[in-house]
Amino acid sequence: MSTALIILAAGKGTRMNSDLPKVLHPIAQAPMLEHAMAAGQALAPERTIVVAGHGADLVRDAVAEIDEEAQVVLQEEQLGTGHAVQQARAALDGFDGDAVVLYGDTPFVSAETIERMVEARSRADLVVLGFEAADPARYGRLVMAGDSLEKIVEFKDASDAERAITFCNSGLMACNADQMFALLDKVSNSNAAGEYYLTDLVEIARSENLTVTAVSCDEAETLGINSRADLAQADAVFQAKARADLLDLGVTLMAPETVYLSLDTYIGRDTVIEPNVVFGPGVTVESGAVIRAFSHLEGCHVSRGAKVGPYARLRPGAELAENTHIGNFVEIKNAEIAEGAKVNHLSYIGDASVGKKTNIGAGTITCNYDGFMKHRTEIGAGAFIGSNTMLVAPVKIGNEAMTATGAVVTKNVDDGDLAIARAPQTNKAGHARKLMDMLRAKKARLTGKS
User: Fold this and answer.
1) CA separation (Å) from 297 to 222, 284, 302, 438?
2) I want to staple 131 with a disulfide (CB 3.0 to 4.6 A). Which of 82, 219, 235, 397 is the partner?
3) Does the pLDDT value for residue 449 go beyond 80?
4) DSSP structure class, residue 95
C-alpha cells in the first residue's frame, strides 16, 4: 500500500515571539519540521505534502532544502486542523493509498510509531495515535472499548469519569486518503472557534460504521513546541537521547552533558569525545578517532584514528584522512588533509590540499582570499612547512619540499626544494635605546608622566 504524508506546518506560533515560522525553529541544528519529515521518510512515502501558512515562502524554501520532491500547499486562513488537511486534497489527486497526518511542531514522533500506525490500518479504517499521560491536564481523552476507539472527548466537554482517563490524543491520524477527504467533507465548523477539527473524523467515521482504533506511543514522543521554553526543553530531550544512543553504540563521552550533537551527527564506535565539543550539521566521525575538548565541527568528515583539538575548528568541506592530527587553535575549511599529515598548532588551512605525512608548522596560513575570489593551495606529500609561513594562493608546494620559518611564499616550490622568502635581518647598533628614549620623552610631553 502506498503512503502519503500530510505535515501540518501553518501555525504562526505566537508564543514563540518570533518573525520565523514556528516549525523552522531549530532543534539540534535542524528545523523542527525536518525532524517530523525525517521520521515520516521511514515509510518511503510516495508523496509528502507540507501545509504552510504563516511565513509560507520561508517554509517552502526550507522544505526544498530538506526534500526537493516534497510539495508545499498553502492554507491561507487558519481554520482548524481539518481545514489544514483539506488543503492537501489537490496535491493528492489520483493518489491511491493511505494518508498519515503529522505535525511539524511535534518533532519527536518516531519512525517506529508511524510504521505501527500504518500497520494498524490493516485492522481499522481510521487510526489515531494516543499516549498515556503522566498529567492528562487539558488533553483530549481517547475513550476506548477494547481495541475500538469510541470517541475523542475534549477536556472541557468531558464528564468526571472521562476526565479520569489518562489515554490522551496526540492529533496524529492515518486513513485511506480518499476516505479521509470524504469524511472531512462532513466536518462542521459549528463550534465556538468556527474551525474544522480533524478530531471530528472519529465520530463521523463511527456514524458510518467504519472501524476506528488507537495506537499508543511514549508520551515523550508527543512533545509539542509552542514557546521558547518548549524549544529549549525539546533540545534537551534530543541531546539526552542522542548522547545515550552514542554511549550504547560504543562511543566514549568523557562528560556527556557537555557534548552538543546535531540531528545528522554520525560518530563511529571507539571514538573518544572529550568535554565541551560541539557537532554542527553534517559531521561524520569514523571509528577510533579522538575529538579533544572545546572543539567545534561542522560539515566535515573525520577518518579513523584522527586526532582533533583541543580548541580546533573544522568548517564545511574539511576532510581528514586516517591518522591525521589537527591540534590546538587550528582551523580547517574546505581542505583535504591526507593520511598521517599534521597541522598541530595555531594555523589556518583553507581551500587547500595537504599530502601524506606532511607537517604544517605553527602559525601557517593559506592566504586564500584576494577580496573577491578564493584561490587554492596544494601541498605535496612529505613536505615540511616552517612555522609562520604565509602561503599566498594560488600556489603549489611539491613533494618533500620545505619552506623556511617566516617565509611568504608567492611562487610554486618544486619537489625537494627549499623556499626562503623573507627580508634579510639587519641589526642597528644602539638604535633600540635611542628609540626607547625618544618614545619615553614623547609620552612625558603628552601625559606629563615620565
Assistant:
1) 30, 9, 10, 49
2) 219
3) no
4) -
Cell of 136: 492528562
The residue from 25, 35, 325, 345 that is catalytic is: 345
Give the residue-averaged pLDDT of 180-204: 93
Task: Give the tens place of pLDDT for each residue, 34-64.
Answer: 999 999 998 999 999 999 999 999 999 999 9
Alpha-carbon span 336 to 303, nearest angstrom: 11
Cell of 420: 626562503
Of 1, 88, 87, 96, the closest CA to residue 43 belongs to 1
| Torsion sign across C-alpha atoms 134, 140, 146, 148 | negative
Among 31, 45, 25, which residue's Cα sits nearest to residue 111? 45
| 291, three cell numbers | 575529538
CB 98 within 8 A of CB 2: yes
For residues 84 and 100, what is the distance between their CA atoms, to the nearest angstrom?
13
**Sole residue written with cell 510504521:** 115
* Interval 120-158: pLDDT, tens: 999 999 999 999 999 988 899 999 999 999 999 988 888
Residue located via cell numbers 515520516: 40
What is the C-alpha to C-alpha distance for residues 295 and 279, in angstroms, rounded to an integer?
A: 9
Nearest-10 Cα torsion for 170, 176, 181, 185: -80
Q: Which three cell numbers stand for residue 359?
A: 607537517
Distance of CA 263 to the CA centre of its chain: 4
Residue 327 cell numbers, joined = 591540534
**Residue 383 host element (H or E):** none
Of the candidates 358, 282, 291, 378, the residue with the CA atom closest to the CA atom of residue 30: 282
Mean pLDDT calculated for residue range 410-415: 98
The yes-or-no answer on residue 345 being catalytic is: yes
